[in-house]
Amino acid sequence: MEILFYDTKSGDKTFSVDNIFFHSKYAPKTEAERFLSANTFEYSPKVIIVVEPGFSYLYSPLKKKYPDSKIGIIRIITQVPDSSVWDFCINITDLSKESLKSLFTESELLSTQFLCWSAAQKLFSTEIKNIFGIFKESFEEAKSLIITRQYFEKKWLINAFNNIKYLKKITDLTKKINVPVVITASGPSLKEALPYIKKYSDRIFIICLSSALSVLLKYQIKPDLVLTSDGGFWAGQHLKKLSNIHFSQNNIIALPAEAYIPGSITEQNIILPLSYHDGLTKDFLKICGIKSIKAERNGTVSGTALELARTISENVIYFCGLDLCSSKGFQHTQPNEIEINSQITDNRISTSEGRASKSGFNSYSLSIYRSWFCQQTGLSQVYRIIEKGSQKSLGNIKDITTEDFENKIKGWQKKSEYFMPTKEISKERKQKILKILFEHIEELLQSQVNQEQLFPLDFISLRHCRNEDEKKEVMQRIENNLTSLKNKIKKICGIK
């Protein structure tokens, strides 16, 4: 690619690429203004991206017309030394879904508009096609996440108030765990490790993911800690057995405020509070005067469990049942509470075998979770107990057999007690706390930033409105949703 630079008659610069001029040879600034007048947007976008603008003649007229927008470029011609004026610059060689995630929020991506400079369209049609392919994938992911947040942000807030309402007994850790930590997920390979977990349960600290709880209880293995982090209803089904008086004796459940857990289970068991330290509920436990352990948000509870184990222990960590890969038959070690619920509707036409076959197809979410584990570093002390070569690699997490696990574990001394004595929260104190929390959230919800966090899809719709009538309709919908949410929280708190 031959690039030659020239002076124009107006005194500005231009250049040619393989004998094709990128800007006017006479007045490139005037050319840029005319280009912009012919390319307008129906709404004011959060982000404007210009695909290879050459020199920065478009920036000033764009910023004048859209002062609140973040305006940047995708640079194809890296020899053009004129990028610093833009709000951001992405070189085409660095463009990826990951780089876009680091630059923009989902809301910004879905409020993005593009301009493609005329000469760039002629010269780089293949590159531009690839650019838009990457953005299309990013838009689809962002759209999916925004739709999820539109539902779950409200759900998480309601969960937090419900969890505090039913919170009765709490505990904390007194010291770091000084024995090996075993995290039990519910993949089919868990079954192979169960005899060894049971045999050496007095020498390991067992963190049981909620989906594996029924399995451990069936094999008479009492976990040291049950972890649940999902905000959805079905996650709470895995904890059902803890409402049974036979199993609900001194179980310790670790959960962030936003997780879904039935109130009866919260009341009957001991809670180890976790906090994500972000979002609308980040100060809830602090306001309540309740100490918490920092946790990390993750798309899968297995990821949250890994980060929690690394926080509370400096010892070796073992994963069991972390298959993260579709398999023939059931995708979880049995019994599994969701499977038990699903069996109720099985019949000759819709059979359990049919359901198992469908769930055996490759899952996109499993590949995302597997990718997350593969990208982690500093895992020299993390192992997965699984038949070697039977499942896809998890990057730096080393696979070992059950025999390897036994050889490593049998020499350990018996574990000690790690939890503080249980503290009880009285009804009177809880009522005061709930009132303070409601006042706190009511104040937070006066901010448009916090409203947007709760209703991201509605606010994206608001930015795309083409006239005042459309804006009024969307704003009324947001106001109605806010009122409805506040009324639900009032009811939970017992406030009239």
Q: Could you explain the architecture of this structure?
A:
There is one protein chain. This protein has helices at 28-37, 59-65, 97-103, 106-109, 118-123, 125-166, 190-199, 213-218, 233-237, 263-268, 284-288, 301-312, 337-343, 352-359, 364-374, 402-409, 427-444, 448-454, 456-463, 468-493, and strands spanning 3-7, 13-17, 20-21, 47-51, 70-75, 88-91, 112-116, 169-170, 181-184, 205-209, 225-227, 252-256, 270-275, 293-294, 317-320, 382-385, 398-400, 423-424. The termini are far apart. Helices cover 43% and strands 15% of the residues. Mean pLDDT is 88; it is low at 346-351 and 353-362. The chain has 20 helices and 18 strands. The strands form three sheets. Strands 8, 9, 10, 11, 12, 13, 14, 15, 16, 17 and 18 form an eleven-stranded mixed beta sheet that branches. The protein has 496 residues and is an alpha/beta fold. Helix 17 runs antiparallel to helix 20 (468-493), helix 18 packs across helix 19 (456-463) and helix 19 (456-463) runs antiparallel to helix 20 (468-493).
